[in-house]
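Q: Hand in one record:
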Amino acid sequence: MRRWLVAALLVSALGLAQRAEVSLGSPFGVQGGLRFPLLPLLLDGRVYGGMGLEALGGGADLLLKLPLTDLYLGLGGFYGTGPALTLPQDARGQGGLRAVLGTWLNLPLPLIGVYVEVHPTLYLVPNAGFGVGAAVGVSLGL
């Protein structure tokens, strides 16, 4: 039963997603995900999974678009099997909350977007700590 539920959620997620994304950087190394419009032109949701040299995991973000700009702000959570990528190295953990500060780069590519993000992160598991990560990504879709 669980397999059917996961399969149904995955198929519906692919049908509702506005964009497919691949990024390199925080929190796990290489991430792949889907971005969903929650409130058109204002609020997006993003789910992602990733893997790196030390961790495998996933997370979700709520992203608020700033009107008339290419900037967006967000809040999310993540959890992985090992330590996430961040600076400083001694503050990192495997799960926590993160803020997202991002911008789209204005490149003349149809249906392809490139973005840069900074992630101030509060680690909660296994120990409390604070770190800062970053990511560069490519987004495909409308």
Summary: Helices lie at 2-16. Strands lie at 19-25, 29-39, 43-51, 56-65, 71-80, 95-105, 112-125, 129-141.
